[in-house]
Amino acid sequence: MNNVCSYSIQLLCHKPGVADPIFITLMNEDVKEIKDLACLGLRHEKQIELLQKVQDEILKIQSPHICNETQTCPKCSSKLQRKGYKKSEFSSVFTDHKVPVPQKRCPNCKWQHTPTIRSEFGTSMHPDLAKLQCEIGAEHSYRSAQKILDLQSFKPRRVNNHERILQVVHSVGENITKTKLLESTEEVEPAQELIMQIDGGHIKDKSPDNRSFEAMASVVYKQENIEYSEKGSRGKLISKHCAASALSDKQSYMFNSTLVAAKKEGLHKDTWVTAICDGASNCWAIVEKLSPYCRGITKILDWFHISMKFQNISLSTLDKIILEKARRHLWRGNTEFALVRLSQLVKNLNNIKLIKKVRKLIAYITNNKANIVDYRQRKNKGLVFTSHLAGSTVESLINQRCKGKQHMRWTRDGAHLILQIRAFIASNDWATDWQNKVHGAMGI
Q1: pLDDT tens digits, 315-336
Q2: Where are the domains of the chain?
Q3: Is the distance from CB of 307 to CB of 279 less than 8 angstroms?
Q4: Strands (E), 92-162
Q5: Distance between CA 153 and CA 93 in Å, rounded?
Q6: Structural contact between residues 199 and 393, judged by C-beta atoms closer than 8 angstroms
Q7: Which 8-state DSSP code applies to residue 398?
Q8: What is the pTM (predicted TM-score) of this model?
Q9: Which residues, 6+ apart, have CB-to-CB distance to 173 below 8 Å?
């Protein structure tokens, strides 16, 4: 194969005290005949190699300026003298480096100052890498996150070990937990109406003595922030704030973080809240606690959960007709008519298991009678009546990460910390405030 031409990649550097720029050759490559798309540009391995060289050269220029604050000896106050460099580990987003950090020595008492990247900055990991680890670790299992990050870097890296990723996720999750309730909401414009969805999900417990524990999640948003690609399509939230908790603290953190999320969306004493829940008492309890902070609350039993309970009952054709009539009565908000139909269905059935299911449905409707509305009317008016319109709270925040695989088991603390990152990413906060959360967790 004949060479067509060659090219050289150079880095233009401006070193302190040097007037003229310096060109550093990083890569010389031959351009060969282009037979397929893979020949265009640099391959993944070459891109990482180039990035490694660029970073190394930049770090050489930056390294003399590390730890310039220490100029005098803390023991005898003499002026310190330079005493060479010591290489210190530093992990950037895709590459690892040995940074030459300057050492200093006192000419009188011989005191030595030997700083490292970690001792100076609290960590040897770039915050952008910690951010990436949080994002991928919040979406995938820690071992899968390790594989993904190593694939991006084109090689295994110690800094991307699954245990290191877990540590970073937990540290950032702890920082979010500590600072969540202190976040300012003073500059938020008051909202006339807010929609709130609260739900819960059970997560398998890591302890062999316990089967599972409950985690809760909430989403707060404005009606106008539901975007529809076309009429009748499932809505997509373009702006929202989320809260989540797996703590066993009598819902204290869950309520307070939900309150902060609502205030960030504009909750005010003149705001009307529409709350959608699946009927669980702990979810309604959080809603009730919000009463002093708003003008009033419309409570709605989630139509999505009602529909799922009807779908879970398999009947013969004739009995299905009765069940469907009951569902239609509920759709129009006619609870009493629906209960009559379901009672009729119980009398028609002979199967004990089916009778139990229908009776459970009757109890569910009876217990939540006060929160069943005219769903058809709300739909015709373009009003929210179900969590399914904007995506299930639990499905997006809890189930996708914590229950995606049946063998996955968690501690309460571990699940809670990752839920803080997932809720923060799902909210409007991560894009603008991730640095404060990551830097605070890393002690930067």
Answers
A1: 888 889 999 999 999 999 999 9
A2: 3-121, 127-180+435-442, 303-385
A3: no
A4: 96-105, 112-113
A5: 8
A6: yes
A7: I
A8: 0.86
A9: 416, 417, 418, 419, 420, 421
